[in-house]
Write a structure and sequence with these properties.
heterodimer; A: alpha+beta; 3 helices; 24% helix; B: mainly alpha; 2 helices
């Protein structure tokens, strides 16, 4: 993706990432973590806001900081970096709610021309089938692989 | 007449900063246990479906 992204810090194994979103609602720390699920051979992508006051992560909040495109580009950048030592990895991601998953689907559609350059994206149907991602379909989650 | 096209304008992007203190900040447990549980549930369904499809081909 050639969209502008935020500066990102990462652990050297590229499993944990952190960046700061800047917008009308101030500075919001975002954290990304990739977790391998050995028994099913995939990586889960977790993403949420870090609240320094409570030392908790919130992956249900919509921070609405006016920088959605830049945040998405930063998550995509983390995927690229994650895949440097793991070029054949399969990444799964979903929303915390059905509605949130649909928002992610909408974001994938909106930035498809950027995303599809580097990544192959598939959707998971209610029946558990893995199908090429198509706009405005209902999916349980998404799979991403490097092209 | 030959024409030359301009290459797509490249955005200068910030580099990745490696910082292993993140490991301490994130802690030893996964940050997104609920999401992992949900992912495991969905991917179990996917793998089950794939296994059924493979078996039906054999």
């Amino acid at each position: 993706m050639n969209q502008p992204h935020y500066e990102v810090r990462a652990a050297s194994d590229r499993l944990q990432f952190e960046f700061v979103s800047e917008g009308p609602k101030g500075r919001i720390t975002k954290r990304i973590e990739y977790t391998y699920i050995d028994s099913l051979n995939f990586w889960n992508l977790g993403f949420g806001d870090y609240n320094p006051d409570t030392d908790q992560i919130d992956d249900q909040m919509v921070s609405d900081n006016g920088d959605g495109r830049k945040v998405l580009a930063t998550v995509a950048f983390s995927i690229q970096e994650f895949m440097v030592p793991r070029p054949n990895a399969t990444i799964f991601f979903t929303g915390s709610t059905d509605q949130r998953t649909q928002v992610y689907g909408w974001a994938l559609s909106k930035y498809w021309s950027d995303i599809s350059v580097d990544f192959r994206v598939e959707g998971i149907t209610e029946a558990g089938d893995v199908v090429p991602f198509v706009d405005r379909q209902h999916y349980l989650g998404f799979l991403i692989r490097r092209k | 007449m030959q024409t030359t096209s301009k290459p797509a304008k490249k955005v200068k992007q910030p580099q990745l900063l490696i910082d292993d203190t993140l490991k301490e900040h994130f802690g030893p447990s996964p940050l997104f246990p609920d999401k992992i549980e949900k992912a495991t549930r969905i991917m179990s369904l996917v793998r089950q479906k794939q296994a059924e499809q493979q078996n039906s081909v054999k």
